[in-house]
Structure formats: C-alpha cells, structure tokens
Write a structure and sequence with these properties.
Length: 189
Amino acid sequence: MINVAIFVSGSGTNCENIIRHFANHPHVKIALVLSNRIDAYALTRAKNLGIPSTVMTRNHLNDEPQMMALMQAYHIDFIVLAGFLQMIPNFLIRAYDHRMLNLHPALLPKFGGKGMYGHHVHEAVKRAQETETGMTVHWVSPICDGGEIIAQFHTPLTPADTPDDIAAKEHILEQDYFPLVIEKVLSHL
C-alpha cells in the first residue's frame, strides 16, 4: 500500500477530488491531509471523508525532526501538493525526491515562480492576452515551480475571457486530470 499525504492551504476541491478518486483503490491510501492554515476548508472536507488531518505552521513545517516524525507516524510514501502555498523545506524535498508532486494552474514555465499562485496566475494570463492556458503537474524541487514537468493539459481562451473565466476553465482540467496523473505516477513506484 502506498500512503499519500495531501498538502493544502485553501478550500480543498482538488484534495476532495483526490480522496474520492482513491477511496477504494487497492494500492493507494490517502493517509493524511496537512494544511498550513487552521481555517482551510480542506480540513473540513478531509474530516467529512474520514481522512486524518493536521495543521503545521511555517515554523513546524521547517522543523525537520517534527516534520519527519509526522511523516513517519503516518508511514507517508508520497506527497501531493494541491494548492499548498508554502515553500517546501529542502530536507523534505530530499526525503521525498521524485515522490512529491505539485499542481500549478498554468502552463509552466510561463506564469510560475514566487507570487504566481491562485488568481494571480489567471490575472497574469489575461494581461498577457494568452490564447490558451492549462495546468502543469511537476516534481517539487528547491526552485519554486522549477521541478521537472510530469504532465500538462491545455484549454483554449478567448479575448472575452475574464480572469474568473480563465480560472474556471483551468479548474475543470484540474478536476478531470490531476487524480489520473497522480495515479499514473504512483503506478510506477
């Protein structure tokens, strides 16, 4: 059994989608949902779906003995970042080398890096008058949004699309494809 931790900061629509996708999977178990925010609705979603959850502040996240003890306590084999807005400490990246992936709401390398998260990304896509957007799943590295790309999915845009429209189109890709990419990656472990 592969035990997966999902790291989240917000409402957790992707978190819930991933939990539901793997609910009856014979080889994958969502073992923990971790948030850096006590008010993240993702924690409520996890509770409602019977998944253990915890809150780790920035200080706790950067405390290697504490963080690694938590990962060991839940026997975490793999980490999925699903809207997690903190930089991952290097010790955790090393410990989960090619066993930690992230979803980015744009077609990297465009619109990535520091400050490029959530609606900021979709506003930047609109300002750049892009004709398409998409989602990128990539390995986590010490460089923000700089890890090797695993998969990308595209959707067309029109000049009339607002940042909210762009966000909605990109979110459909996340819901349709993110769990499938995770499953494919896990099948090769």
